Amino acid sequence: MVGLGFTANLDGYIDVDTDLQRHVYGRTERRIARWQAERDQLAADGVADYQEQVRAAVLAGVGDLPETPAGPPPVEWLGEVGHPRQARARIDRLMLETLPGTRVPATLYRPAAALTAPSGSVPAVLFVCGHGPLGKAYPRYQSVCTQLAAAGLVVLVLDPVGQGERFGYLDADGNALVADGTVEHTYSGLQSWWAGWSPARYFVTDARRGLDLLESLPVVDPARLAITGNSGGGTLCSLMMALEPRLAAAAPGTYITSRGHYLWSGQRQDAEQILLGGTAAGVDHDDLLASMAPRPVQVLAVDYDFFPIEGTIASVDRARRMYGLLGAEQELRLARARSTHEYAPALARAAVDFFTEVFDLPPAEPVQLDDDQALDPRLLWCTTSGQTALDHPDTRFPHDLVRAEYLDRISATAQPAANDIRRWVAERVRAQREVPACPRARWLPGPAGAEHAFWRSEVDLWAAGVLLPDPSTGAGAQARAAGPRHDPGQAPATAPALTLLLLHGGTDALTDDHPEVLARAAGAYAEGPVVVLDVRGTGALTPRDRDGRAWTDQSGTGYKLLCDLLWLDDSLAAGRAFDVIRAIDVLTSDPHLQERYPGLGPESEIHLVGAGVGAQVATLAAVSDPRIATVGVTDLVDTDRVLTERLHDRGTGAWQGLIPGMALWASTRMLREVLGTRLRERATPTAEAASTGTHGRPAAPDPIRERPGGPT
C-alpha cells in the first residue's frame, strides 16, 4: 500500500498546520477592531441605542427565547435542610418547572432575619453555577451562598442541565451515556445549532424563571434583584445582564475577558457559551458589561485564570467608558484575587461587600464555610435517587425540547420553495469570502503517478488536491486490472469533465488501493481529470491540534475553530463548500490541467463524489452551483435523525457539516428534493474505509466519552 497524499507541510512547501487558525483569527480580529472603532465614536446620547443593539444581538445569538407562562413557575417545596450556619441562614429544597415538563432542582437560602422581615424588604440574588458535576451542592458554592444569606440576601441556586441532579443522558440504571457538564452541554448543543439556535436559550430561560420565583416571594424586594456566578455561571450571568432589565446589580465571575484575548489561548468552550453571530454583530465581553450601565456591576476575576486577565482588564476599561458617558463610571468595578479558576474566597467576600453596599444593607461580618464544613450533597437532593431523570422519567431536557420544537415547526410551517433553499445555502456558502486575483496554483510530482497541487482558495487560505493517475497512462494501466469496475452514476462526456472527490479523511486517507483510486484505474469515472480535494481544515490542511486529538473530536481544535466561525456568523461547512466551488473555477482554467486535458474549460461537466463529512460538503456545493452535473454521496448526514434522536452523534465528525438553521431551511430531505436526479446516493462504505484521523492518527471512535482538560 502506497500513500498518495501529501507529506508534511504540503510536501515541504507551505506550513499549513495553522493556516485555518490564522484565517479565522484574522477575520475575528478585523471584525473586533471595526466594532471597537465604531464604539469609540459613541457619545452619551447614543448609549441607549447601542445597548439596545447589544440586547438584540444577544437575543438573536441565543435564538430568541421560548415562551413561558406569566407569573412565577410552578414550584414544589420539599422542606428545610439543616445547616452549620442555621442561626444565620435557612436552606429550603424545592423543584421548579421552568418550562412545561422541565424540572429544575434548587435550593433557597434565606437569612434568619428574613423570616420576620416586612413584606418586600429583602434583596435577592440568583446564583448561577459554573461547570461541575455537583451543581448547586458544590462546596464552594454552598459557602458563597451561605455568606450572601448571612449578609441579609435571599439566594436561589439552580442545578444547571447536565450537572447536579440534572444529568440528561442516563440509562435505566442511572449510568451516564454522555459525560456530564461541558460534554453534555456540547453534545445536546449541537442539535440546537443544527436547528438554528443556541442551547444558551434554555440556560437563560431557567435563570429568568428563577428571577420570576424570587420576585414572587413575599419577603423579596422585586426592585433589588441581582445575579452572580462564576465560570459557566459567569457566562450566563453576562447574558442575563444583556437580556434581563429586572436586574439591579450583577457580579459575573471568572469569565469576563475579551474575544481577542481568549481567541489566542486556543481553548474551546462548550456550546452554550457560543453566541451565534455575536462577533459579526459586534458583541464582545465589554459590550455585555456596558449593557448594564448605569446599573452597578462588580466583575470578579482571578489573576491566574485560563480566561486571560489581560482581556478582563481591557474589557472593564472599555466598558467603564460607557459608564462614564452616563455619569456612572464608579458603578463598574473590578475585584481580583491571586488564584486559579474558582469563585475564590476573596471574590466571595468582594461579592458580599458589593451587594450589601448597592442594596443599602449593613456591613456584613466575615463568614466563611470551608469546603469540609459543607453539607453532604445528598442532604440537598430534591429527588430520592439524586437524579430527576430517574425519579421523573418524563422530565424534559434540552434534547427533548429541541426535538419537540423541531417537529412542531416542520409540521406547522410549509417547506421553503426550491429557489429559497438554493438561495439560503448559496448566501451562506459565498458570504464573507475574499478571493485573490490569482490562485497561484503549484503542481508537484507525487507518488505512483499522482500529482499534487495547491492554490489559494481565499487570499489567506490554501486549498489542495491530488490528481489521480489517468488510466490511459502507464501507472494507471497497471492498476486497472486490480480495480473492480463500478458505476459512480456518471455518464462519460465527449469533452473532458472534471471530477472532484471529497473523501471522509481527505487526502490523508488516500492510498493506491483506496476504492476510489481503484475505480479511477478501472475507468469508472468520466474522461478528464479526477482530483481528490482537501478543503479547509481537512486532509493535508487539517489544523494542528493543540492536545493531539483526532479531527472528528468535539473537544479538538476543529471544533474550537467551528465555534470561532459561528461567532462570525459562518461555519466550516459553508467555507468548505465554497472551497469546492473555488476549486472548480481554479482547475477548469488551470494551464497545466488544460495542457494535460485539451478541451477542459469553463464549459466542462463537473462531477462531485463525497463520503462522510465530504458528502455533506459536496451536497451543499452542488445546491449552490448549477454547474455541478452530478454529486455521488456516501453516508450523507440525515438532519431529521440528528434532530430527533437522543443519542444523535455517531463519532464520525458529522457536526462539521452543520450550518446553523439548516435543519429548518435546508435539511437533508430538502437538499435531496432540490438536487433531484443530480444526487446519486452510493452504498459503498467509503467513509468507513477512510476513517483515519489527522495525519494518519485513528479517528476517535467514541465522541461522548469524558474528556480531560479544556476550560469550557
Descriptive overview:
This protein is an alpha/beta fold. Helices cover 36% and strands 16% of the residues. The chain has 24 helices and 17 strands. The strands form two sheets. A nine-stranded mixed β-sheet has the order 1-2-3-5-4-6-7-8-9, with helices on both faces. A hairpin with a 5-residue loop joins β10 and β11. α4 (139-150) runs parallel beside α11 (345-358) and α18 packs across α20 (613-624). The longest helix has 22 residues, at 19-40. The chain is elongated.
The fraction of residues assigned to DSSP E strands is: 15-25%
Shape label? elongated
- How many strand segments? 17
Whole-angstrom Rg: 28 Å
Keywords:
about 700 residues; alpha/beta; nine-stranded mixed β-sheet; eight-stranded mixed β-sheet; 24 helices; disordered C terminus
Compact overview of the structure:
About 35% of the residues lie in helices and about 15% in strands.
How do the helices and strands line up, and which of them pair or pack?
Blueprint: H1 8-12, H2 19-40, H3 47-62, E1 75-81, E2 89-99, E3 102-111, E4 122-128, H4 139-150, E5 154-158, H5 182-195, H6 200-216, E6 220-230, H7 232-243, E7 247-253, H8 259-263, H9 285-290, E8 297-302, H10 309-325, E9 332-337, H11 345-358, H12 388-391, H13 398-412, H14 418-430, E10 442-445, E11 451-458, E12 461-467, H15 474-480, E13 498-502, H16 515-521, E14 530-534, H17 557-567, H18 572-588, H19 591-596, E15 606-611, H20 613-624, E16 628-634, H21 639-644, H22 662-665, H23 668-675, E17 679-681, H24 686-689
Parallel strand pairs: 4-5, 4-6, 6-7, 7-8, 8-9, 13-14, 13-15, 15-16, 16-17
Antiparallel strand pairs: 1-2, 2-3, 3-5, 10-11, 11-12, 12-14
Helix pairs in contact: 4-11, 5-13, 14-18, 14-20, 14-23, 15-16, 18-20
